[in-house]
Amino acid sequence: MNSSINNYSNNILTNITLTLEKDENLIILGSNGAGKSTLAKLLCGITPSTDVTINNQKLHTLSAKERSKQINYIPPKLEIFDAYITVKAYLELSRLYATISVDEAIKTLDLKALTNHSCKTLSSGEQQRVLLVSSLLHGANITIYDEPTANLDPNRTIQVYKLLKSDSIKSRIIITHDLTLAYRLGYRIIYMKEGAIHFDGTNKAFFETENLKQFFGSSLKKIDNHFVVNL
Q1: CATH H superfamily, domain 3-76+139-229
Q2: Residue 77 main-chain phi, psi, to 5 deg
Q3: Predicted confidence (pLDDT) per residue in 20-63, tens digit
Q4: Cβ pair 178, 149 in contact under 8 A
Q5: What phi and psi, each to the nearest 5 degrees, are found at residue 41?
Q6: Domain boundaries, the chain
Q7: Burial grade of 151 (CB within 10 A; 0-12, 13-18, 19 or more)
Q8: Least crowded by CB within 10 Å, which of 38, 98, 125, 131?
Q9: CB count, 10 Å around CB of 77?
Q10: d(Cα 177, Cα 24) in Å, to the nearest integer?
C-alpha cells in the first residue's frame, strides 16, 4: 500500500509533496515548530484534507473504520477520557486488526506489572509505553509515531528501538528529535524547516557531514555513531 500528498499548503505547511511506497518506513526530523506533527496529523486525517491519497483513494472519502485500518497516529501524550480505565482495559479496547494478543503485546515493553493500574496514575514514561504497545494491537497498515522516545530512559529507549524495528509493525512514520535513534533505524529521512521539506533522501545521505553542518551547524557532534549536543 502507498500513501501520498501532492503539493499541499496551509498556514503552517508549504508545498508539501510526499509519497510513501508499500512497506516503506520514514523518519521525519526538524526543529520545534517545523511542521512535523502538523504533517503527521494531515497524513492520518486528523487534519481534514482532499490532498491525501492512500492506495489511490482519497483519505477523506474513507469511512472511519476503513481509515483506521489504513493508518494510525500515536501521539506523544496519552489522552484518557475515563479516569478509572486500567492499562489492561485500555489495551483491550486498542486491539482492532492485529493478530498479536493483548498479553503478548504487554510483554514487548514490560507492562505486566502495570496492567491493573489506572492509566491516569502512570508516569509520562509509563503512559508512553502503553501508547506504543497499543499501536501493536491496533495493527494499521501505516503507524505514525510522534516522538516515541521523548519521555523514556535509555533502557526503555533500547526496547522501543527494537519494537520500531520489529516485523510486528507493517509500515511506520517516526517523528523524532533523537538523531541517534534515527541513524540506527536506518530509514529514509525527510528534514523539515519552517513548514517545508528541505531534505528527502536516504539515511546514509542525510548523515553525511555536509548535511549535518547545513541543518545543525556547530551545535552537533558525532561520537562513535552517537549524536550529541556540542556544548
Answers
A1: P-loop containing nucleotide triphosphate hydrolases (3.40.50.300)
A2: -135, 140
A3: 998 899 999 999 999 999 999 999 988 888 889 998 899 999 99
A4: yes
A5: -70, -30
A6: 3-76+139-229
A7: middle
A8: 125
A9: 12
A10: 20
